[in-house]
Design a protein that fits this description.
The chain has about 200 residues and is α+β, with helices and mostly antiparallel strands. It folds into two domains: about 60 residues, no CATH class; about 110 residues, no CATH class. Helices cover about 55% and strands about 15% of the residues. Strands 1-2-3-4 form a four-stranded antiparallel β-sheet, with helices on one face. A hairpin with a 5-residue loop joins strand 2 and strand 3.
Length: about 200
């Protein structure tokens, strides 16, 4: 499909999800959404073992030095978490504060390296889809619901420039906001975006 309208990209994503085509679903998502989904998936897959993530990154030509930096910082994050619950830290308010500040910096460093790594992925949609499949194979569940968009309808589409909002009606009849963005003439889904309050664009 051309994804020339919000309705077209929604229909494409719905059809892809209904046939279990994660690549097709992810191809309909905007880059910011893919980054958030992939970041969650990377953290979860890492808990299953570093080799799983390393293999997936190699398959998708992710720069090895970026993967190494991210994994190193993820290890530091785990070590910091264990340090925070050590008896000698928990019993000393001053030590707790120092450890909290160190942990925050470590979290920030990890998130920066993760974001940089994901932005360097040549095909983020393909990587996110493969990550979703790998997670489901390893743990039985992924970062996205397999029922997303299935049996849903789109209502009240409103377009303002390169952005749009609509209401997706679930198969059970529940309304959910759905954002869209247009890039290079094609529309993409923003299912994690929040609709602005009235009067704010």
């Amino acid at each position: 499909m051309s994804r020339a309208t919000p309705e077209e990209v929604f229909a494409e994503a719905r059809a892809a999800m209904e046939r279990g085509d994660w690549e097709g679903v992810c191809a309909c998502m905007d880059a910011d959404t893919l980054l958030r989904i992939a970041a969650n998936g990377v953290a979860r897959l890492s808990m299953g073992g570093e080799d799983l993530l390393a293999a997936l990154c190699r398959e998708h030509a992710v720069p090895e030095e970026m993967v190494a930096t991210m994994r190193s910082r993820l290890q530091r994050l785990a070590e910091s978490g264990r340090a925070a619950i050590a008896p000698e830290v928990r019993s000393d308010p001053g030590a707790m504060l120092e450890q909290s500040l160190r942990h925050k910096q470590i979290v920030d460093d990890y998130q920066k390296s993760l974001k940089a790594m994901l932005k360097a992925v040549p095909d983020l949609a393909g990587f996110t889809a493969a990550l979703e499949r790998r997670l489901r194979a390893e743990s039985g569940g992924g970062s996205m619901s397999a029922r997303l968009f299935v049996g849903e309808t789109l209502e009240a589409v409103s377009i303002t420039g390169t952005k749009a909002w609509a209401t997706r009606r679930t198969a059970e009849g529940h309304p959910e906001d759905l954002g869209f963005v247009r890039r290079k003439g094609a529309w993409y889904l923003r299912p994690l975006a929040r609709r602005p309050a009235a009067g704010r664009g």
